[in-house]
Amino acid sequence: MNMIKRLDPRYLILAFLLVFVTVGQLYLGFFQKWSAVFTSVGFAVATELFFFRLRKIRQFPISAIISGLGISLLLSSDEGWPYALAAVLAISLKHLIRYKGQHIFNPNNIALVFMLYMLPEYAVSTPKQWTNGYEVMVLILLLGFVASYSAKRLDTVLAFLVSFVVFALGRSVFFDHPWLWSLGPVLGASFQLFTFFMITDPKTTPPTRKARIWFAVAIAFIDAIMRVLSITNSLFYAAFWVTLLVGIPYRYWRSKRAVEIEGK
User: Fold this and answer.
1) Dihedral sign from CA coordinates of 89, 95, 99, 103
2) What digits encode the pLDDT tens for the residues 165-192?
3) What are phi and psi of 124, to 5 degrees?
4) 195: which DSSP letter?
5) Which residues, 6+ apart, have CB-to-CB distance to 253 below 8 Å?
6) Across the chain, where does the E strand assignment appear?
7) Main-chain phi, psi angles of 42, to 5 degrees
8) Running DSSP on this structure, what letter comes out for residue 81?
9) pTM to 2 decimals?
């Protein structure tokens, strides 16, 4: 466990996504082909290197590779340009929308929200399933838990999973949703990507455990409301709105409080 803690969590997340991509391409027949993967990663890396040059940063673009892989998995389109556009948006907005030197929104989340809301005729997010290959699903889950543990965001993952299950059962009881249908997304590949990859970003989640737990619960709650209202892509929209309406004010409050404490 100590060795896992010492590893840069980004490399474990990269391994998690690479296994996701490989399994999806070779065994599960994901809609996205290798061309989508190369397009997303290529444009993400190129955009990152462009901003690195502007900001005079010398760094390997591992975050861009991670973002590109995430986009290639979460986005589905019959054409190649939506993958390129989403990749450019994700990296550009990461560098342009910042507060005290850190980006505010998860790059993939804000890019997906833009694509899914503004260009629904060209891009969708398909609820991929793992078929009946439970061995594959267990492998992905293990990698996801290890990656989130390394990133010190296992509390976020557990809080979100528990909250999602509670709200799903609540929908089943109060809105007559079949309980298997309500809990079904948990077994989906897109849900697991969202849980282990998107909401565990150390740069865009709160720094304290208590705040992270409330952050995760809030996302699950907004997602549950949107599902009752039959809003598609509810996970991505929920994460965006919680970051916008709760995450940004929370960052401002913490920075202001830190200044007050230093001034005393």
Assistant:
1) positive
2) 999 999 988 888 888 888 888 877 788 8
3) -135, 170
4) I
5) none
6) 98-99, 102-103
7) -60, -45
8) H
9) 0.88
